[in-house]
Amino acid sequence: MLNRIFLLLMLCSGLKFSAQKKNISSYNVINVSYKWSSKFFVYAEGQVRGTADFTYPDYYELKGGLGYELTDQHKPLIGIGRYVNYKNHSLDKEEFRLWLQDSYEFQAGKFEFENRVRAEKSWFYAPLTDEHSDRIRLRYRLNISVPLNSEKIKPGTISANVYDEVFFVTTEKPLFARNRVYGGFSYQIDKNFGLASGYLWQREFALTGNKNLHFLYLALSLKLDSSKSKKE
């Protein structure tokens, strides 16, 4: 197990070294899910990003939601969050977001496919100009994962993960506003904790010109389930 963790950390270090040579930004995530009944679960996530400078955070978000398991594969959720952007070390824009999400998973052999759809309503405030605005956005993500050293996910499993997510803004132009592509690996430390790292490419579309962002992605996840102990 220690050898596997060492190899994963070496991989992350190698990605970080090559990322800095390409002016890659940092994308750090911690998320927690807790299922307390046979159907209901809560979700919380925090993110810190260094977009302009790899080592200096200029964006963060805090969000959470309440989900319901229609089946083991079908899990709708409602969520809220606060998102903050900084520019030149000063607060640039604040966002409050409300969203509805529907996710459906299915398996084909060892491969697991997750289809996730979100509908978001956001309210923005720019303190420097005292401007208020809003936005409606639709998102779709297809995530594919496969365990590499076991038949299914269990403690000690290393998996390969890829996803593509597209963003559509209905209140602005252009309609197709963003494309986000990720590729990386995850490691299931034990039955609760998981670690993921990889490369995330993001393309922003705008009438004034497109923009590419390159991120080194690092995430720690914690999954808790007290519903099983209640059944026992």
Topology at a glance:
Blueprint (H helix, E strand, L loop, with lengths): L1 H20 L3 E11 L4 E11 L8 E10 L5 E14 L2 E19 L2 E16 L4 E17 L10 E12 L6 E13 L4 E12 L6 E15 L1 H5 L1
Parallel strand pairs: 1-11
Antiparallel strand pairs: 1-2, 2-3, 3-4, 4-5, 5-6, 6-7, 7-8, 8-9, 9-10, 10-11
Structural notes for this entry:
- With 232 residues, the chain is mainly beta.
- The chain is 11% helix and 65% strand.
- It is built from two helices and eleven strands, in the order H-E-E-E-E-E-E-E-E-E-E-E-H.
- A hairpin with a 4-residue loop joins strand 9 and strand 10.
- The longest helix is centred in the first third of the chain and has 20 residues.
- The two termini are 30 Å apart.
- The N terminus is likely disordered.
Q: Could you give the order of strands across the largest sheet? A: 1-2-3-4-5-6-7-8-9-10-11
Range of strand content = over 45%
Radius of gyration: 19 Å
Give the biggest sheet. Answer: 11 strands, mixed, barrel
Unreliable sequence segments? 1-11, 13-21
End-to-end separation in angstroms reads 30 Å
Net shape: globular
Structure annotation, total helices: 2
Mean pLDDT across the residues is 91
Please estimate the helix content: 10-25%
Order of helices and strands: HEEEEEEEEEEEH
| Strand element count | 11
Label the structural class.
mainly beta
Concise account of the structure shown:
The protein is mainly β. The chain is built from 2 helices and 11 strands. The model is unreliable at about 1-10 and about 15-20 (pLDDT under 50).
